[in-house]
Design brief:
globular; five-stranded parallel sheet; six-stranded mixed sheet; TIM Barrel; 2 domains; Rossmann fold; alpha/beta
C-alpha cells in the first residue's frame, strides 16, 4: 500500500463498499499483471459519452470498463433525460472517485439533453440583459441558476461554461453568437456572474477558450487558427475576461487550440509559456486546466500531443479519440522521459483537489432560485423576447396583412419549416425558389444560421447574399431578420428593417413575429459592432 498511494486513496474513499472495492482491485491487479499501473493517467482523461448510444449494451459496457480503469470523467453529448440521468448515477456508483461529468451546455441543458430546457445563447443573453438594471441582473441570475439546477438534476457537475472569448472578428466561424460581446468589459461582467452562480451551486465552472478564440477566421476543429496580434493587443482585449474569471473563483479553464506567434508558435493548449507562464504564474490560477477536445484537426499532426499538453501545464485531456490508446501513449512517454512525471503528479493532485468539491456537493440540495422547473420555459421565452434587437428601422408595426407579404427563407434549410413565421405568412418560399419575385410587395427575409463544429462558417455563401440583395431591390418595403449571426445584417443595409434574433429557434421566431406585429417592443441591444450599423 505504501508503494501505491493512489490505491490507498481509492480504497479509503469507499472502505465500506465491498462491491466497488472488489471491482477496483480486479482492475488494479489486471494492470499490475501487465507490469503497468495506469490508473493515475486515466484520471487525467475525460472521454466522450454519447447519450444516444447508451441503449446499446456493448457501448454501455465500454463506458463502464473505462470507469473500472479509473477514467477521470466524461464529456456528455446528447441523450434523453430519462435514460441519461440513471446511467450517470450508475457510473458514479461504480466509480471509486467522483467522476467529472462535463457538457457543452452554453444554451442550457436542452442544448444536449432531450426533456430539459433550451435557453438563449450567450450573445442573446447580453442583448437582453441591461447590467445597469437590477431587475435584469436578477433575471440573468435566475436563468443561470435554472441551468445549474437542471445540470445537477441530470448529473452534470462540470458545465463547460461560460464562453469568455471576445468576438472581435465578424467572420469567426466557431465562436460568434457563443460569445457575449465584442467588448471585453461586457464579456467580463457577464462571465463573472455566470461563474459565481455556478460555483455557488457546487458546480465546476469552466471559462473557455484561453487565451481567447474570438479574433479568428478559422474553426479549430478543421485547422489551426493563427492569431497575428501583438501581445499588447491581446492583453488589452482577449486576456481581460480570463483574468477577471480567475478573480471570480473559476474552478477550471479550457485552453484553445490556437497559435499566437507573438507569444509562442506552439498551439496554446501545448504551450508552457501560455499555460504555465501566463495562466498559472502571471494570473495565479491554481485550478484545473482542460485542453480543448483532442480529436480536433488543429492538432492532428502533432506527435505525443497528450504528453505535450500535460508537460505544458494541462491537467485534463478532453475528448481524445481513444482513451485507452491515449493512456498507453502517455505511459510510453513516461518510460522514455518525454513526459515529466512531476507534471503528471502535479496534475493528479489538482484533479484530486477539484474532486473534493464534488464530494462535498454531490448530495447537497439544489439551489432554489426565483423560478421552479415549470417556469424554466417561460423564463427562457422572456429573455428571448427581450433579446430581439432592432438594428435599423422603426419599431412601429411592420406587417400590413399576411397575404400582402412575401416571406423568403435563406440559410440553413433544416430551419426552414416548423416555426410560426411559416404558419403566419401564406406566401412563403425558399431563396432557391426565386420564380415568385416580390414585385413591389412587402418582403420579409428570414436568414437562419447556426454555429457548429466542423462547419467552417457562421454566415451564408456570397451567392445567397447576392440573391437576397437582388430580391430586396425589387421589393416595396423590406425587412431582413438574422436568426443567428448578427454580422450578416451588414450585407443588407438597403432593407427598411434589420432585426437581430441571434438564434434559429422557434422561440426566437415567435418573439420576432410579435415585434413585427407591434405586440412586443424591440428591447434588445446589439452586443457587437456591425460595420456601418448602430442601434441605440
Amino acid at each position: 500500500m505504501k508503494k501505491y498511494p493512489f490505491l490507498r486513496e481509492n480504497l479509503s474513499q469507499h472502505g465500506k463498499n465491498v462491491v466497488t472495492n472488489v471491482y477496483f482491485l480486479i482492475n488494479f491487479l489486471t494492470m499490475q499483471t501487465a507490469g503497468i499501473f495506469m490508473q493515475p493517467l486515466y484520471q487525467l482523461i475525460m472521454n466522450r459519452l454519447d447519450g444516444f448510444s447508451i441503449s446499446c449494451a456493448s457501448y454501455r459496457r465500454s463506458i463502464i470498463d473505462l470507469v473500472g480503469h479509473g477514467i477521470g470523467g466524461f464529456i456528455l453529448f446528447g441523450g434523453a433525460r430519462e435514460e441519461i440521468k440513471p446511467f450517470i448515477e450508475e457510473l458514479q456508483g461504480l466509480s471509486l472517485q467522483r467522476l467529472f461529468i462535463a457538457s457543452d451546455i452554453e444554451r442550457g441543458v436542452g442544448q444536449q439533453i432531450e426533456g430539459t430546457t433550451h435557453f438563449p445563447c450567450q450573445m442573446a443573453m447580453a442583448a437582453a440583459i441591461n447590467m445597469e438594471l437590477p431587475e435584469d441582473i436578477m433575471l440573468y441570475k435566475a436563468a443561470i441558476t435554472a441551468i445549474a439546477e437542471e445540470s445537477k438534476d441530470i448529473g452534470i457537475n462540470m458545465p463547460l461554461t461560460p464562453v469568455l472569448d471576445v468576438n472581435i472578428n465578424p467572420y469567426n466561424p466557431i465562436i460568434c453568437t457563443r460569445a457575449f460581446s465584442s467588448d471585453p468589459a461586457v464579456v467580463s461582467n457577464f462571465g463573472r456572474i455566470y461563474i459565481e452562480t455556478n460555483e455557488a451551486a457546487g458546480l465546476i465552472s469552466c471559462a473557455k477558450h484561453f487565451p481567447g478564440h474570438g479574433d479568428t477566421e478559422t474553426d479549430s476543429h478543421i485547422a489551426l487558427p493563427v492569431i497575428g496580434k501583438t501581445e499588447a493587443a491581446l492583453r488589452e482585449s482577449d486576456f481581460i475576461p480570463f483574468a477577471e474569471a480567475v478573480k471570480a473563483g473559476v474552478s477550471s479553464i479550457m485552453a484553445a487550440h490556437i497559435a499566437i506567434p507573438a507569444i509562442d508558435s506552439t498551439p496554446a493548449s501545448l504551450s508552457k509559456k501560455i499555460l504555465t507562464g501566463l495562466l498559472r504564474d502571471e494570473l495565479s490560477f491554481d485550478g484545473l486546466i482542460l485542453t480543448d477536445a483532442l480529436n480536433m484537426d488543429a492538432i492532428k499532426d502533432i506527435e505525443d500531443v497528450a504528453a505535450k499538453c500535460i508537460n505544458a501545464g494541462a491537467d485534463i485531456l478532453l475528448h481524445p479519440t481513444d482513451a485507452d490508446e491515449t493512456v498507453n501513449a502517455l505511459d510510453d512517454c513516461l518510460r522514455s522521459g518525454k513526459l515529466d512525471a512531476n507534471c503528471v503528479n502535479a496534475s493528479y493532485q489538482r484533479v484530486s483537489k477539484a474532486r473534493q468539491k464534488l464530494n462535498h456537493t454531490a448530495s447537497s440540495p439544489l439551489n432554489q432560485g426565483i423560478y421552479h422547473d415549470s417556469d424554466y420555459v417561460s423564463l427562457s421565452e422572456r429573455i428571448t423576447e427581450k433579446s430581439i434587437t432592432l438594428v435599423k428601422g422603426s419599431g412601429r408595426p411592420f406587417i400590413p396583412t399576411p397575404s400582402e407579404t412575401l416571406l423568403i427563407e435563406a440559410g440553413e434549410e433544416k430551419f426552414h419549416c416548423g416555426n410560426c413565421l411559416i404558419k403566419y405568412f401564406t406566401n412563403h418560399i425558399s431563396l432557391y425558389e426565386r420564380d415568385a419575385a416580390p414585385d413591389g410587395r412587402t418582403l420579409v427575409v428570414a436568414i437562419y444560421t447556426n454555429i457548429s463544429a466542423w462547419k467552417g462558417s457562421s454566415g451564408i455563401p456570397q451567392a445567397e447574399i447576392d440573391a437576397v440583395r437582388a430580391l430586396l431591390s425589387k421589393a416595396g418595403r423590406s425587412a431582413v431578420i438574422s436568426f443567428g449571426s448578427p454580422y450578416l445584417l451588414s450585407h443588407f443595409k438597403e432593407a427598411d428593417l434589420l432585426i437581430a434574433a441571434y438564434e434559429a429557434s422557434k422561440q426566437s421566431a415567435a418573439a420576432v413575429l410579435k415585434c413585427l406585429k407591434g405586440q412586443l417592443n424591440y428591447s434588445g441591444r446589439l452586443p457587437v459592432e456591425l460595420p456601418g450599423l448602430k442601434t441605440g
